[in-house]
Design brief:
Layout: H1 28-42, E1 46-50, E2 63-66, E3 71-75, H2 90-98, E4 103-105, H3 148-152, E5 155-159, E6 166-167, H4 170-193, H5 197-212, H6 214-230, H7 241-244, H8 246-251, H9 255-266, H10 270-298, E7 301-306, H11 312-317, E8 322-330, E9 340-347, H12 361-374, E10 379-382, E11 392-395, E12 410-412, H13 427-438, E13 447-448, H14 456-462, E14 466-467, E15 470-471, E16 480-482, E17 496-498, H15 525-532, H16 538-553, H17 555-566, E18 572-576, H18 577-580, E19 600-601, H19 606-616, H20 624-641, H21 647-669
Parallel strand pairs: 1-4, 1-18, 4-7, 7-10, 10-13, 16-17, 17-18
Antiparallel strand pairs: 2-3, 3-5, 6-19, 8-9, 8-11, 11-12, 14-15
Length: about 675
């Protein structure tokens, strides 16, 4: 049928739907404007879409041919085809922004340990080389160190899948990365030796990068050589005691350690390997900084993830900064009802601060970690903030064969005699918050992940701002709220709330018959109907009763009500990409080893997949105007009930917004074929 053009002067809700399933380019600005106005009316300042870098969608593959019914042969198309990247992802960030999100919450973007896909064990300094955008390397700005021929020489074999998601293949991603980055480095060196001016300009930037990052880059590149020799990043499993403790022994003046260090550096090919490693890190930082500038123009922010942990490379390179034997964990959720054993190094509290209050070795490392995280983003999420105030620690040497550990060998740091000078509680107000302010970040805008068991020391420092005899009135903080089983009607306090994150099952998985949600107060139909469709006159009473019957009969409608409730709770919200796209699969099963952990990602055709899900409702994707319409109705109704303003005034103020939300809701439900 004919498409209807939208006049910029006509009220949208008075125009017939265009019956176009996928929004046209000329519709998107008005759609985005409506979403933002709805969020503004609801008082929601920060709207973050949670999606880790590896879960970003790729470009659509250019299919060459099907190898079989199970596999297709494609060619390299701009980015690593086996994993996502947050760099230069404008098409996707525009999609998120159009739907009302003004931030993307990433996971840690550090280099992964060998055979460990968890970004929460990644390096605090080295970036993840799998995130490189190869198309950038074909440009003049990068001295054209990749060519079309280099692209065509790389053949990609991928499983032929048709789900509404894809899965990262970390092993294949690593192999492709090795081939492409080595080719880029080789081309760079060749161009440099041939006197290529663009390569010389790029080399000047590279030299500056090495100078600015020498405090970590040299030792980190040496570590990679040792890691290759021993076949593992876990230096505790290396055969050589000298290699395990090399940096510590060098700092003690051990001549054998110094000789070993020099020997490894001078082995055939070592210098080139180290230089190539540094060059790849340089490319990553260059792309990251370019991307940050582009996002500033686009008006969307990235929230980096300040992981509580450290990689093996970080720990090996900075031995004086950590306690021996002690590791960070969590008191609950582990094997046999015991603690979770995260195998994360514990900063040495005696090295956090010197006697004069300046930073010691541990304090300096932590400050560098925070600043490195902030380099490429506009805000941060602080992972397990308890770990920066009063970490739950355990003795790694005391772990039994069955994975359990005695109570005497685990506790909050404050309950031990390890931190005699009470330095850990000083981290928040004396290191982290000052660094945030130096970067013009309001601590109250930070995503403080405070879920899980909490000690009394943590509560005093974090929520009450109390440190000894001093109270930091302006630095009393709020954590995040997991709304899955809560009623949000009377919630006050948390800065951010969410229904699911990267560590939880997606909301779509909760709808099965017999699920616990049907007996939970937070999902109670009378509560949801009363809050989301408040009764203030006979007309609203009928709507509320009808809504109650609908969510009682239809789990999908109950989920919509719960999503809309999220938009009514706190001034900042987070929505997981799995929920937005209606994916019934968990990204990370927190606290459990699982072969599929960290692999879930959006497919290359995510936009069409999303719109098709809204049309068919086969998957419970989030129709943003529909959910915002419910939330706007709730706020307006509550204003009337609480007699804050006259009913006619309230309804008149929101009628245009409600009409536009209703219009766009219906457009998104129409079929392309109509």
């Amino acid at each position: 049928m004919n498409k209807v053009s939208i006049s910029p002067n006509a009220p949208l809700y008075q125009i017939s739907p265009s019956f176009q399933r996928k929004l046209r380019d000329d519709e998107k600005p008005e759609f985005e404007k409506t979403m933002n106005e709805a969020f503004d009316y609801l008082g929601i300042q920060n709207r973050a879409l949670i999606i880790h870098g590896s879960s970003f969608p790729n470009k659509k593959d250019s299919i060459v041919k099907n190898c079989s019914s199970d596999y297709s042969l494609t060619k390299l198309n701009g980015k690593n085809p086996y994993i996502g990247t947050p760099f230069h992802a404008k098409e996707f960030t525009d999609f998120a922004k159009m739907n009302g999100f003004n931030a993307i919450q990433l996971g840690p973007n550090g280099k992964l340990n060998k055979r460990d896909n968890s970004p929460y064990h990644a390096s605090i300094f080295a970036k993840n080389e799998l995130f490189l955008d190869y198309d950038r390397l074909k440009s003049d700005e990068y001295a054209n160190i990749l060519s079309d021929k280099d692209y065509n020489d790389v053949k990609i074999i991928k499983p032929a899948k048709h789900e509404n998601y894809e899965m990262t293949d970390f092993d294949e991603a690593q192999e492709i990365s090795k081939v492409v980055t080595h080719k880029a480095y080789t081309n760079f060196k060749t161009k440099l030796s041939d006197g290529d001016k663009k390569a010389q300009e790029l080399n000047s930037e590279f030299i500056e990068f090495k100078q600015n990052n020498d405090y970590w880059l040299e030792k980190d590149s040496i570590f990679r050589l040792f890691s290759d020799i021993h076949g593992s990043d876990n230096f505790e499993n290396w055969d050589s005691e000298l290699d395990k403790n090399l940096i510590a022994r060098i700092s003690e003046g051990d001549k054998a350690a110094e000789a070993r260090y020099d020997l490894i550096k001078t082995r055939p090919g070592a210098k080139e390997k180290m230089d190539e490693y540094k060059f790849i890190q340089f490319l990553l930082e260059k792309e990251e900084q370019e991307d940050k500038l582009n996002r500033k123009e686009d008006g969307i922010k990235y929230i980096g993830d300040l992981l509580v942990g450290y990689s093996y490379a970080d720990e090996w390179s900075n031995p004086d900064a950590f306690l021996k034997d002690w590791r960070v964990g969590c008191p609950e959720g582990g094997k046999n009802g015991g603690p979770q054993l995260w195998n994360i190094a514990v900063l040495n509290p005696d090295e956090l601060f010197k006697d004069d209050g300046s930073l010691g070795v541990s304090g300096q490392l932590l400050k560098q970690k925070i600043e490195r995280t902030l380099d490429g983003v506009e805000n941060i999420r602080v992972d397990n903030v308890m770990g920066l105030v009063d970490p739950y620690i355990y003795k790694s040497s005391a772990i039994k064969q069955d994975g359990s550990i005695n109570d005497a060998d685990r506790n909050y740091l404050s309950e031990t005699d390890i931190d005699k000078h009470h330095n850990y509680p000083k981290i928040l107000h004396n290191i982290l918050i000052p660094v945030l302010k130096e970067h013009n970040i309001d601590p109250h805008d930070v995503v403080w992940e405070d879920l899980g068991s909490q000690s009394g020391t943590f509560k005093e420092v974090f929520y009450n701002g109390r440190l000894g005899d001093k109270v930091y009135e302006d630095e009393k903080l709020n954590g995040i709220m997991y709304t899955k089983g809560s009623q949000m009607q009377h919630v006050k306090g948390p800065g951010y709330s969410f229904l699911s994150t990267h560590d939880n099952e997606p909301a779509a998985s909760l709808l099965e018959e017999g699920s616990w949600i049907y007996d939970n107060n937070g999902w109670n139909t009378l509560y949801l109907a009363g809050y989301m469709m408040p009764i203030y006159d006979e007309s609203s009473r009928q709507k509320s009763e009808d809504f109650c019957k609908e969510i009682e009969a239809n789990p999908r409608t109950r989920l919509k009500a719960k999503y809309a409730e999220l938009f009514r709770g706190t001034p900042n919200i987070q929505v997981s990409f799995a929920d937005l796209f209606g994916i019934d699969k968990t990204y990370n099963l927190g606290g459990h080893e699982n072969n599929d952990n960290w692999k879930l990602r959006l497919n290359a055709d995510y936009e069409n997949t999303y719109y098709k899900s809204l049309e068919t409702e086969k998957e419970p994707a989030m129709n943003m105007p529909e959910l915002l319409g419910i939330a706007v109705n709730s706020r307006a109704g509550m204003e009337i009930i609480e007699a804050k303003r006259e009913k006619s005034e309230v309804l008149n103020d929101v009628s245009d917004l409600q009409g536009r939300l209703e219009y766009w809701k219906n457009v998104l439900k129409e079929s392309d074929d109509d």
